[in-house]
## 1
Amino acid sequence: MSQSPIRLLIADDMLPIREYLSMVLSHEPDMKIVGSVESGALAVEQALAVKAKVVLMDIEMETPDAGIKAIRELAVKAPEIKSVVLTHFGNHETVFAAFEAGAVDYIIKNSSAAEILDSIRAAALDQTAIRPQIAKLIRSEFRALRSERNNLVATLNIIYKLTPTELDLLRLLAEGKTQTQIIEMRHIEASTFRTHVGNILKKFKLASVRDVVSLLKHLGIFEIFYT
């Protein structure tokens, strides 16, 4: 007994692209085009109504992230429907947002028809592999995360060596207080303030207290200690 064709829905706001994809994919004996829509909202509505197996989903349609929202909604309402992204955008943020939403594959629109067909078939079988381009992005992201983690650990080790007064001074600077304001608020001499700043810079091995505050803000240190 032959296997049922893959029920495929195409979602793209460009009519020529939808027509091209429909023309190419409709000739495949193992695929059946069950819909062609121009928005993320319609993609969700139609995919549920026609019981699509795979949705070929653009990202930017009625809104810049319409495809992402549609993928997320389908993943909740009908996880058996597989979303394959087909888009012009290949940046880190869009790729990871798509996979986080529930996409099973991510293809750039300049990919060959064979790649698109392979992806649809693999998605239908729940056997999608990580493409070299996506794998490269993932490796890059993990390297960045590892570097950030190491930076956070090293910074926390310094934070724990700060005195309560030094930590308080940094918090006030992060809030935008000036040297004069801090001196008045904490009833200290200017020379005392400068001594604290000097000690902080030695511990962090940075040239200015502004650099220290910037680093701590970037790593979310103030949220860790004051929330």
## 2
Amino acid sequence: MAKKKLKVLYEKEYSEEISTWKIERVIRRYELYPDQRKAEKTFRKRAQAREKPRKRITRLVKEGRPYFLFQIDTIVIYWDNLKRYILTAVDHGTKLGYARMYKNKSSRSAADFLYRLRYLVDQPIENLQTDNGSEFAWEFERASCIIFRIVA
């Protein structure tokens, strides 16, 4: 049950207010999760995320030079009963946009997109900004390492 539902039930039963945070603390303390396996998996994922902190764009001093910073994201569309993914890239400096449609949202598709983007601009791409979605992991990270080695 959600914390808000438990809050309403508690207030009806005992005629006193309780915060959802207090309910959350009790759930965590006594491990009152409906699906224990799912809770353990969530804890493991969060622990792994804490081990590898993400690079934040706030530390980057944005420059108006062409191809200094590309912002990349994925859009989902439904077209004739088909689900398609459009990867988009916009250059922060020149506002150049590039998009390509794929059948799936995989890191392989994102890596292919990155290689094509690099071929299109035919100049070094210094920085990439993504939303850290699943498509921007594994093969995409390897591809970005290869592209940045070509630049160096």
## 3
Amino acid sequence: MTTIRAATVDDVSLIFELVRELAEFEREPDAVRLTEAELVRDGFPGASGERYFEAVIAEEDGEPAGFALFFPVYSTWRGRAMHLEDLFVRPRFRGRGIGRALLTRVAALSVDRGCVLLFWHVLDWNTPAIEFYKTLGAEALEDWTRMRVTDNALRTLAGRDEVAR
């Protein structure tokens, strides 16, 4: 039986482990620079801190099977939106509806919070995921290019010359 529950601070080690498994799946095993302490700070800061993300955990018969990590954003054209940063199901649990259950929970939370848009990115070589998302009504935005500035380039752009970790 699959259950989906909100992640708590006690899940930080599990979330970190799942993030590392996702990075391996995405062929970037050395790309994770995040620490468990940063996950605590940014996702579970206590009453006085700003929360940058939320996560839900999927369990199959009590065993951790996957997770989804998401956060609110704002669309200047549409209003409130939710960005799904990661959705990952461990390989041995795939094909059981867990990915759908995770995405359904994030969609429900989005609607409950007044969001009119839920979006995410998927690697172009991950055709099974792309096809799965299309069955749920998602559409690929072929005419958009994702851009980013990271690490030292971000610091340079910001006018900060310190070297990132």
